[in-house]
Amino acid sequence: MNFPENFLWGTATASYQIEGAVDEDGRGASIWDTFSHAPGNVYRGDTGDVACDHYHRLEEDLDLMAELGLQAYRFSVAWPRVQPDGSGPANQKGLDFYRRLVDGLRERSIEPMLTLYHWDLPQALEDRGGWTSRETSERFAEYAGLVYGALSGTVSYWITLNEPWVAAWLGHGYGVHAPGKQDAGAALSASHHLLLGHGLAMERMRSVGDDNRLGVTLNLHPAVPGRDRDADREAARRVDGQANRLYLDPLFRGAYPEDVLSHYRGLGADLSVVRDGDLRKISAPLDFLGVNYYFRHTVRDAPEEDAPDAPFADLDARPIVPHAAEKTAMGWPVDPEGLTEILVRIKEEYADLPLYVTENGRAVHDYADPNGEVKDDERVSYLDAHFRAAREAMDRGADLRGYMVWSFLDNFEWAEGYSKRFGLVFVDYATQKRTPKTSARWYSEVIRRNGLGEPAR
Ligand code: FCB
User: Fold this and answer.
1) How do residues 277-316 score in pLDDT, each as one tens digit?
2) Quick one: which residues bind substrate (predicted)?
3) Domain, as residue range, for 119
C-alpha cells in the first residue's frame, strides 16, 4: 500500500512536554508551570521542570530524528521563552533556541512544522484574564509576528493553535488542564478568544507576504450514540456541536453553530464577547488544516449526571467506551475508522483543502526488557491500522498531504504526568537515555518505502 510521492512523514512534540529548562535563558512562567506545581492537579505531582531535557539535548535528539529517517518534525514554540511576560520585545535567547532547532532540522533535510501555541500561555497574561480576555488574542498576534519575523525564512509550515477545544474546555470548562477553571461561560469566551487570536495571527503573518503555508490544528472526533435511542442520538449531536462544530463552523463558515449557543444560553452562558468583524477574521482562508485524531466519542444521554464537572456533563451527555473496543493505556478506544470518517467529513461538509494529520498515536505500558529493548507491537499495529485508514480517506477524496505521529519521545502527558508513554522513542527519565522502540524501527521502514507491507497482525 503506497502513499503519493511528497507525502510528508514525521513526528510531533510540544514545548512544555519535552523541553524542561524552565528557568533558563530568560524563560518566564507559563500556566502549566503554575498548574503542575499546585498539588492535586497532575498525577504524582509530576511537572515539566525537566521533562525530556530536550532543551539541553537538542543535538542528540536531532541526530536521532535523522537516524530514524524522519522527513518532518512538528514542534511548538514556548511563548514564555519568546516573551517572558507575554508582551513587549522578544527575548533573543528564547528565539535563538528555536533558530538552532530549525537550522538543525534543515541541515538534516527534515521539514520543520511550527506550532505557535501548544498551551503554555505566559502566566502574566493569565493574571490579566488569560484567554477569557480579548487582550490575550491581541498579544498572541503580536507574539506570532515576532516568531514569524525571526523564522519565516526557514519554516514553511505554520500552525497557529493546537487544539483550541482542549485549551478552552479542559482548561476552562472542566478544570482538568491549566488554568483549571470550571465555568462554561469562561470556556466559551476562551474558545472565541483563541479563535480570534488565530485570526489576528493569520492576518499578521499574511501581511509579511512570505510564501509560507499557514493553518491551524483541531482535535476532531466523530460523535455517535451509545444506544439505539433518540435521546442518545440527540446527546451525540450536542457533543458533536461542542467538540467539532464549535470550531469547524466559525473557521470554515464564519458562523457559530446556533444549537450549541442556544444550549449554553439555557445554562446562562453566552458568546457576548464576539464583536463585529471577528468572524470574518476567524474565517479567513487557510492553506491547510491540521487534524489531531485519537478516538471517537460514543455517548449516552445523561440528564441526571452525578459528576457535574465531568466532560460533557454540561451537555447532559456521558462518554462511554464500547465493551468490544480495544483500549490504549489512556483507556481510549482504538478506532481507525474514525480517522477515515473525520477526514472525509471535512472535505464533504466544510472545505476541500490540504489536510495533515498533525497528531495520532497511542499510549502503551512500555518498559525496557532485560536486553534493553522496548517491544511495543501494540503501537505498530495501531499505527499500521491508522495509516491504512488515512489512505482510505485519500481514496475517498480527502487531500491528505502528511502524517505526524504523536510522539517522537515519551514525554510529560499533561494531567497524567509521566505515567503515560506515547513515544516512538522510549525515555528513561532517571538517566534521560533514549531507546528507539520496535515502532520507531518499523516507522523508519514505512518512511523509507513510502508505504506499508502486509497488514500487521
Ligand atoms: C493531544 C495533545 C498532545 C498530547 C496528545 C496525547 O490532545 O495535543 O499534546 O498530549 O493529546
Assistant:
1) 999 999 999 999 999 999 999 999 999 767 878 999 999 9
2) 17, 118, 162, 294, 406, 413-414
3) 8-449
What is the torsional sign of CA 441, 218, 179, 173? negative
79: confidence class by pLDDT, cuts 50, 70, 90: very high
For ligand 1, whether the C-beta of 75 sits within 6 Å is no
174 lies in some domain: yes
Q: Is the peptide bond before 89 cis (omega within 30 degrees of 0)?
A: no
User: Which among 74, 115, 163 is the best mutation to test ligand 1's pocket, defined by most ligand atoms within 8 Å of the CB?
Assistant: 163
Supply the CATH number for residue 379's domain.
3.20.20.80
Instruction: Provide mean pLDDT across the span 48-57.
Output: 98
Active site residues: 163, 359
Q: What is the mean pLDDT of the chain?
A: 97
162 is in an annotated binding site: yes
Cα dihedral 184, 189, 192, 197 sign: negative
pLDDT at residue 1, rounded to an integer: 82
Question: What global pTM score does this model have?
Answer: 0.98
Does residue 343 form part of some domain?
A: yes
Write out the three cell numbers for 144.
Answer: 506570532
Is ligand 1 within 6 A of the CB of residue 414?
A: yes
- 457, part of any domain: no
Cα-flanking dihedrals φ and ψ of residue 154, to 5°?
Answer: -115, -15
121 located within any domain: yes
293 in ligand 1 pocket by Cβ < 6 Å? Answer: no
Which residues neighbour 255 within 8 Å (Cβ) at sequence distance 6 or greater? 249, 279
Please choose from 413, 420, 421 the residue to mutate so as to test ligand 1's pocket, defined by most ligand atoms within 8 A of CB.
413
**118 marked ligand binding residue:** yes
Tell me how many domains the chain contains: 1
